[in-house]
Amino acid sequence: MIECFARAIEDRTDDLVALTVDLIRFPTVNPPGEAYTPCAEYVARCLSRLGFQTKLIRGEGTPGDTDRYPRTNVVARLEGKGPGPTVHFNSHIDVVETGAGWTVDPFGGEIRDGKIFGRGTCDMKGGLAASIIAVEAFLAVRPDFHGAIEISGTVDEESGGFGGVAYLAKEGYFSRPRVDHVIIPEPLNKDRICLGHRGVWWAEIETKGRIAHGSMPFLGDSAIRHMGAVLDAFEHELFPALDRKQTEMPVVPEGARRSTMNINSIHGGQTEDFFPGLPSPTVPDSCRIVIDRRFLLEEHIDEVKGEVSSILERLKRERPRFDYGMRNLMEVLPTMTERDAPVVQAVAGGIREVFGHDPEYVISPGTYDQKHIARIGHLHDCIAYGPGILDLAHQPDEWVGIEDMVQSANVMAISLDALFGAAG
């Protein structure tokens, strides 16, 4: 039977390549959310031809959703010949901005040296295409399976997933009894199983001052100087403390097995939008930073927040006229699916069959949509597995290997057979 899956997928290699190229040519850049609807409609047409019932579902009222940029998701479902489990493949269709440094058209889908180039090939339209071809091959070999298969193309994963998986999870699309097992074809390398991710806390910190004329700063109070004190305390106190924290989670790469914090942005004083290099001569009364704190399974969210707030409170006591505000933007707890979970065992078996060795079990350094499936849907039989090399995500000249997609599709088809077979 395994050989039958391999032949069925090999026979569809050209279709797999064409499907990936077509998906890349939709410039679904987020933000702002370009081309979501035509891309979702295309996926729906592809799956309708396989017999799936499809729905286009707009994440109404979610961040970024407008009539110009609707948050359009596609969810497709195919019922088998009798009752059984539901296996869901979830891929995000949005991609990050192209950035500079490309030597090929980011949305051209160029094929060269066994690779497909373009923004989103690796992260993660190659994974979406592989899952569709895997399901098509599975149906050709196992047309009488019992259970149901779902495939979704969702939006906004690159900006938190609130208009995509989070919205759908609130609507019951990622909960039992509708769904039992979820595979997210993120690019974590073709012989790895990603069990989950670190936690994340985003917050905005504002230091406050008093406006005055720039020639007489002693009459005001610079919020930027106050922020300088915050950054200095972070540099000499918080960052060294975070670097000492280690986890037993198998996070990749190695450097992410520590707690980390990134300062995503800093804004202070009057903007220079109208006269670059010539802001108004005033003492800034506000300065803001956004922090991106990634934390470990061994840490509690209250401890994570307390490390920052304790520094700010100490500065308020010790530094004259220091005042601040802090706004919570996002928090997601770490998650890690158990290795004996059914979906883990099924995909592990597929990897052993295709590659001849055990999978590597890893944890992602950043979050992905598993967070919403676990947190909102309360469904924990969920992993990330797909083609593509993690380090290529968001890079110029992003690519995915054609053979990698073929092999990953094989693993997915074998995994489907195991999950439905175990239920039977």
Can you tell me about this structure?
This protein has 424 residues and is an alpha/beta fold. The protein folds into two domains: 2-197 and 334-423, 3-Layer(aba) Sandwich (Aminopeptidase); 199-332, Alpha-Beta Plaits (2-Layer Sandwich). The protein has ten helices and 16 strands. The protein has helices at 2-10, 13-24, 36-48, 121-141, 165-170, 223-243, 301-318, 342-355, 370-375, 402-423, and strands spanning 53-58, 72-79, 86-92, 111-112, 115-117, 148-154, 181-184, 192-197, 199-208, 260-268, 286-295, 323-332, 335-336, 360-364, 382-384, 399-401. It has a six-stranded mixed β-sheet with strand order 1-2-6-3-7-15. The longest helix has 22 residues, at 402-423. The radius of gyration is 24 Å and the shape is elongated. The protein starts with a helix and ends with a helix.
